[in-house]
Amino acid sequence: MITPPRRQGEYADREIDCQEAMEPGFQAIIDCMPEAGWTRGEIMRSLRRLIAADNMTQKENAKVEAQLAIARAMMRAGRP
Prior knowledge:
Blueprint: H1 14-35, H2 40-76
């Protein structure tokens, strides 16, 4: 089970708590990948690329959501 934040909203150590909550799963990935034949360097590079890809996806999704919001507002205003 993943440990939830200590409380709702922002607090000083929230990101540290998040890291600690992720640590067991992260270590499980890091530990099992070499057993499948991957090197530590490959694992770390791949994790960085996955994070970069996720960031790009989030940015693109935000752009699409903004475009959809504009299109909806224009439709409501009677402008195609």
